[in-house]
Amino acid sequence: GAGEPGTPLAGETRQDGRELRTLVDSIKVAGNLAEARKRLALPAAVGSLDGLLADPDTDFWRFCFSLPENNQPEEPAQLEFLRGAYAHVMGRTAYEGIAESMTSTATDHPFASILNAARKVVFSRTLTTADWANTTIAGGDTTEEVDKLRQGGDGYIVVWGGVELWRSLMRLDLLDELQVSMFPYIAGEGTRLFDGVPTSYAL
Fold first, then answer.
1. Which of 16, 61, 100, 108 is a Cys-bridge partner for 54, taking CB atoms 3.0 to 4.6 Å apart?
2. What is the spatial distance between Cα 109 and Cα 114, in angstroms, rounded to a whole number?
3. Closest CA to 175 of 167, 187, 186
4. Coil, strand or helix: which one is 187?
5. Which pLDDT band holds residue 125 (cuts at 50, 70, 90)?
6. Are the C-beta atoms of 39 and 176 separated by less than 8 Å?
7. Do the Cβ atoms of 150 and 117 come closer than 8 Å?
8. CA dihedral over 132, 133, 138, 144, signed as positive or negative
9. Would you say residue 30 has pLDDT above 50?
């Protein structure tokens, strides 16, 4: 019934948002981010009413991405948002998954041509090579690496997964914009985005 884990709440409406799709899932428009100082934006966090993320292959994940607004990767606003980014930042796990999809298993995806041509930065101290075109590895101090990214160029910086990178950036107070799409759903189990981060980020 309503209120039990794993069930959407009937009669509830989702908070207004312009949900986009990642390579296989969802990102969310972070709005007009053009600023004098390049903004580091985390536009992808999908949460339940009990504060949990939509972990892959869970019932909550399937509920979120069965919705019409989350399965339209060719929407012009989505593509314009991605094209407008100065750089795309991700952790190693996200990088490896996205790179394989965009260059091998999902080359016809609407995001593929954009991301293949875009500047990409992987934050990892274990990755030694990055074969995806236009990709560099940031293996130094995270704050210094982010400061370097903010120098020059136009547009904003989009942060993709994973959650450990998101938390690292929050602990260092480096995120300028965080948008969370809340869904009328009690997940019951899953990953908590705000575990171990400063209280200033808590909802």
1. 61
2. 10
3. 167
4. coil
5. very high
6. yes
7. no
8. negative
9. no
Q: Which is nearest to 42 in space by CA: 153, 167, 158?
A: 158
Closest CA to 24 of 109, 132, 117, 135: 109
Q: How far apart are CA 192 and CA 131, in angstroms?
A: 32
Cis peptide before 162 (omega within 30 of 0): yes
What residues does 40 pair with on adjacent strands? 157
Tokens linked to 95: 């990088």
CB 43 within 8 A of CB 160: no
Q: Give the residue among 38, 40, 39, 43 at the shortest CA–CA distance from 22.
A: 43
CA distance 134 to 136: 7
Q: DSSP label at 201?
A: G
DSSP 39: P
Q: What is the DSSP string of 167-179?
A: HHHHHTT--SEE-
Which of 55, 94, 71, 52 is CA-nearest to residue 183?
52
Residue entry with tokens 């190693």: 92
- What's the confidence (pLDDT) of residue 29? 29
**156 contacts 30 by C-beta, under 8 angstroms:** yes
Burial status of residue 164 (CB atoms within 10 A of its CB: 0-12, 13-18, 19 or more): middle
The mean pLDDT of 95-110, rounded to a whole number, is 93
Q: How many CB atoms lie within 10 A of CB 116?
A: 15
What is the pTM (predicted TM-score) of this model?
0.73
